[in-house]
Amino acid sequence: MFPNLFPTPNGQFGSLPVMPIQAMTQQATRHARRVYVGGLPPSANEQTVATYFSQVMAAIGGNTAGPGDAVVNVYINHEKKFAFVEMRSVEEASNAMALDGIIFEGAPVKVRRPSDYNPSLAAALGPSQPSANLNLAAVGLNPGSSGGLEGPDRVFVGGLPYYFTEPQIRELLESFGALRGFDLVRDRETGNSKGYAFCVYQDVAVTDVACAALNGIKMGDKTLTVRRANQGSSQPRPEQESVLLHAQQQIAIQISVYLGLVLLMLAVFLQRLMLQPPATKVVCLTQVVTVDELRDDDEYEEIMEDMRTESSKFGIIS
């Protein structure tokens, strides 16, 4: 009736196959030990990726599981040019997050958490952020750019006007607290903003408040989309409602003041033009816009329309 409980002909008791404890542990932690590497060049293969990331991890001091290579396995999707790189430990995988943007075979690659990464489960397995002691300069990376931009408190900021500079965006976000990390995504060839960014607040308690206050705000002809990058949008807790209301009021005041200053400057400029005797039928406006603002076709048309509207208040434009 229970054949596995009786001796076999060689004198050994039969038993059901049992997965080794080490294998069970590896399977349970795999989602937190793997990193996604995107944007690989066509020449990449499993061996070159494994060797490169093992060497880089050693160079920045990211190995914490003892001597040897940090990478234990690599899977590459050649068609979509990405790989899953499996590390020996959860801590080493978190340290690898600081390698985002590193140059591999002449091309910058993206280093992210895989889609099956579970922040809640990973929190009990080891550090979820890269060590602050990594020597990123040894591999040509800037420690202050995108390091520390992983985990459940990573914020996506979309719908940014293309002419917004990095200091302007940071000033807006820092209305709610200091940033631990910030990354404005730029076009690889032109270096221009692609209209979205990521950030992480030093005080993660303000994350939901900032997301709720900034999400949906109008910026010119665009609307901001601000939410947690990994978990989607979430609502603030009841005790945060008064803080949220105050934050929204402060943002509205800042935007009103900014727009008011722009209109005032334009009115003063046009008034000065009226006081000057007309020398010709052609009016030349200088220092009104920057070169970067004229690169975007939609932005150019909007500027032209604004100029026509304001100038037509003082006479017929031919």
TrEMBL record:
<protein>
    <recommendedName>
        <fullName>Splicing factor U2af large subunit</fullName>
    </recommendedName>
</protein>
<dbReference type="Pfam" id="PF00076">
    <property type="entry name" value="RRM_1"/>
</dbReference>
<comment type="similarity">
    <text>Belongs to the splicing factor SR family.</text>
</comment>
<keyword id="KW-0508">mRNA splicing</keyword>
<dbReference type="InterPro" id="IPR000504">
    <property type="entry name" value="RRM_dom"/>
</dbReference>
<dbReference type="GO" id="GO:0006397">
    <property type="term" value="P:mRNA processing"/>
</dbReference>
<dbReference type="InterPro" id="IPR012677">
    <property type="entry name" value="Nucleotide-bd_a/b_plait_sf"/>
</dbReference>
<feature type="domain" description="RRM">
    <location>
        <begin position="33"/>
        <end position="116"/>
    </location>
</feature>
<dbReference type="GO" id="GO:0008380">
    <property type="term" value="P:RNA splicing"/>
</dbReference>
<feature type="domain" description="RRM">
    <location>
        <begin position="153"/>
        <end position="231"/>
    </location>
</feature>
<dbReference type="InterPro" id="IPR035979">
    <property type="entry name" value="RBD_domain_sf"/>
</dbReference>
<keyword id="KW-0472">Membrane</keyword>
<keyword id="KW-0539">Nucleus</keyword>
<keyword id="KW-0677">Repeat</keyword>
<dbReference type="InterPro" id="IPR006529">
    <property type="entry name" value="U2AF_lg"/>
</dbReference>
<keyword id="KW-0694">RNA-binding</keyword>
<keyword id="KW-0812">Transmembrane</keyword>
<keyword id="KW-1133">Transmembrane helix</keyword>
<keyword id="KW-0747">Spliceosome</keyword>
<dbReference type="GO" id="GO:0005681">
    <property type="term" value="C:spliceosomal complex"/>
</dbReference>
<dbReference type="GO" id="GO:0003723">
    <property type="term" value="F:RNA binding"/>
</dbReference>
<feature type="transmembrane region" description="Helical">
    <location>
        <begin position="251"/>
        <end position="270"/>
    </location>
</feature>
<keyword id="KW-0507">mRNA processing</keyword>
<comment type="function">
    <text>Necessary for the splicing of pre-mRNA.</text>
</comment>
